[in-house]
Amino acid sequence: MKYLLSLPAMMLAAALLQADTPGLVVDPVKKSVSIEAKVAPRKLAKYDQIYPIEVIACWPDPKGKKAHETVVTIDVKPSDVHKALEGLGLKPGKPARGDKAEAAGPEVKVMLEIPDGGGTKKLSIHRFLLDPKTKQPFPKDVKFRFTGSVMSKPDPTKPDETYGADLTGTLIAVYPVTDETVCQTSLTMKDSEYIKLEVDPTLLPKEGTPVKIIIEAIAAK
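Structure (tokenized):
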């Protein structure tokens, strides 16, 4: 993986983007993007059940199409996060949707920064997920990739297209249930048959707690 911009150019791009995007911080040195978020409710009043986790971060209800299946909610536009990752030199791959489809793109590390006493601690997002029946943690070998989103039509009767994730509000998806997202894991829909996910209540802060989602580029070896 090559970083296409020099460090001074990255820092300038980061400053310009952050000035227009509250809640988003780009660190060119650490090759990371930090997004302000809140711990999401696991049950919405309009549903009669709690749905398994299918996405990591998205807009809150009612704007977020996956707000009933997410770990955290965000307010930033997914396309702004896409721009920030490109500003770090990453080239988006291809999002996956449906059976047998698998996401493609440069690998990124996804972490969650949570309150810890008087400070904070930063842990891999894998630590916050588990199988509610077996209590087995989310497999560490599951990778996250910068796929970018498909373009979608806000109005199917018109030819105009926009960044699809800006319509759904989905930032990071676990399974290829949507290709309107910025990042996806290496899992397929077949994996969703036997990997059912819930948050770990012993580690994730209570609903509404301010946290940060951090997406970090992983340099090629």
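The chain has one domain: 7-217. The helical segments are 7-20, 78-87, 165-168.
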